[in-house]
Amino acid sequence: MAITEFDQFFTRLSASDEQRIAYTNLLRTLHTPPTLKYIEAVLKNFRLTFSDGWLEDIGRSDEFVSLVHHSQAEANSLLSNLEQLSQYKQFKRHQTKTKLSQLFHGDLEKNPYYPLHYLLNRDNADFYRWLRQVLFILPFLVKDKVRDEERLKTYEPVTLGLFFRQLTEDVVAIAWLKQKNCGQCKNLRAFVGWLYEYRAYYRKYYRLSNSDLAKNGAKESKDPIQNAIAIYHQISTCIRILEIPLGHEKKRRASGRRSVKRFDRDSVISHGVTALENNILVQVETLPGEQDNLLFSILQGQLDDEHVDAGEEIFEQQQAEVYLFAEHEPLESYIAAFHGRRLSKSVMRRLERQHQYLYTDHHALTNSQIFQLLNWCQYPPQTEDAAEAALVAITSFFTGYVSDRLIQTTVNLSTPQFPKLDLARSVMALPQYQVPYAESMSEVATNKIEGLQLPMPALLADAFTQYTDGSHYLWAEHGQPLRHSQFSHSTDTLKNYIYDTTGLVISVQQIANTLFLRACAMFGSACATLMFNRPAPGSQARLYYTSLPAQLLQTRYQKLVETVLHDAGFGAEKAFHKAVLPQLIELGCRQAPSLDDYNNLLNGLSKKLQGLRKNRLSSDWVQFHNHYTAYCIVAQGLLTGLRPTHQGFIPLRDILLAAQVAVVRDKDSDDEYHTRTIPLHPLAIRIAEAYHTHVQAMLGRLHRIGLLKQWQAAQGPEPFFFTNAGAIANGSIVKTYPLSIMAFKPSLLRKEVAAYFSGPPNGNRKLLRSWFEKKSVPTFCIDALLGHGNLGETIWHQHNTLSFEDVRLTLMPHLDDLVKLLEIKALKGLHT
């Protein structure tokens, strides 16, 4: 008979040895003390925890589903046996005491999870239900890990247990939970995301600065700030522990005597790193798929309130610090080892030269190699190995996936695996690219399983039809034909086999990169990224500001394949068997506005101005000015793509009328990289002239109400808003209410247009970028207008040979179309 710590209890149960072992496993997972105090309440809580809504980490794993069902059965069986005991009442929930520190005094460190499984919190039941699920599966998520960085230390469950127990009593945590809608939690990553939000809320509540967080703090301190600092670091520690199952290796310090001086937090600042835990941007610097050379850069960004109000993303305000790390180097260990050593200018120049001057055939196939490879894929020797190699190679070519990513290739359209191949409809589906900051898009959640449906090239469809004989020897279980292929699991195996069979000296990366790089050249990096679900190196702003319909991506993929096959020497009939049905979804940036959104905004402001214009002698002229200012900013911004973060408007004094250009600086930077020369549409100039005339008429009115000196003291801002305008008292506008003048701020603009437009003020840039991308305008021309080019690609760079007039001639016809569709006009303001 097996000996366990619960034998004293088991002797009172009529349970078999097999049941005792099962009970013991469940009780140990729940961190049950040998006394089994209040076990009835814990088991009922456990049963309730899994009676509704499971984490995706559990629901998607057969092992976890089986574990939960088995554990629930054991819990029910144990409860039934408990009810037969004469001392049953001693195992029930305590009727008077509720504080966990009193109920489990002495057990909180020995059995850290047990009090949390006992906890009954009706106000925040959903949050603690998800917590109990996380704590139950956490040991099983890391049980097979052997490295210290990937598994839990013995003290870490205690840290988690104490932290979440204190969460039930802390007033700040309770206030935070009241603001949260904890009804839905998709997975462990989402639960950890809640803790990130709690940490930010906690920091804001106590107003902890970076210098405060550089200290250790002390939980026993009488100083509330020192106590808050210590708890903030405790939250960070718990986040890092819960991130271990997500693949974030927790850095372990070597045992032995520590040097206080070496690990002093204050010493990190002297190495150039101040706070590398929030607002970190990681960007691909080399072509994905080139595993030997894959490099990333990390940048520390900051956003103030005005940038947030404008709708700016953090990548738009990158700071000067740049760090480089390789794919195989974990981020934490890199920072710990080098403490933020800045990337030297010579390395930056090497990266720039690689992006701009390397021959394309170092990364992709030439036309002759494409012809040889695809011709061999059509007619390889009739052997099983040759058929498998051909299928893997041709699938990699048309999907843009390296062969080891093709293991999940499936013909079962109901599974979440990609790529999907629908041979009956000649459709293949790739996963939708998850643009950072775009998780709120409903289309992403709704169409996640379907993915982006592209027309399947005829060569790919024929290859699968031809090389799957009657016995279907290539089709693995669950409809995954390449799951067990030796060529899917090893890139070197496929490369060597192609060389031995055809004599082609090509890499697997070249096969996968060919269509992707050609798409970058034909349609731009943003379109290629959304098409192939692969981030391209270079300016990420091109992607974050682009929203494209799936139907356009389908059409462009068809054009891409037809062009590549034609250049390689294949006939047009080799391209596609069938046309794919249009997919009516949008992919790309978040909060992407539509033409209808801006139509409603401009029409709404115009009608409001018409109504206010009729009564110029009353205090309505104050409201008229605010609405007219908003209209001019929005209308001109749709023609210039100006960032609404600084002045938000190009006044007449900043325009070179003879050249019809404006030189603006609408982004913070240490150099001249973001001083932009913008080609102006004639209507944008007329709007600036109309606003200038309006402001001149306003000066007399400002003098009469005593605000002229205030306007001059603010350096005569154009544009400006009246604040405190339109106050209501007794149902009428108070004419004598004190007004104030404030220069442009994104929050003021957002307030004026709130009745007609719900998007961010920088939606003009997203609309323009997407509009030009849909019209197939060359990327470098869009970059010239919006300031999205990489260093060295800007039109004023010393080695750039692009004519500024060429940019103007390329953009103006499309801006003319936009003016007609949105009916943008230079409305007249007030006159003297």
From TrEMBL:
Q: What is this protein called?
A: Site-specific integrase
Fetch the InterPro entries from UniProt.
Answer: DNA_brk_join_enz
Q: Which organism is it from?
A: Rheinheimera marina
Q: Which domain of life is it from?
A: Bacteria
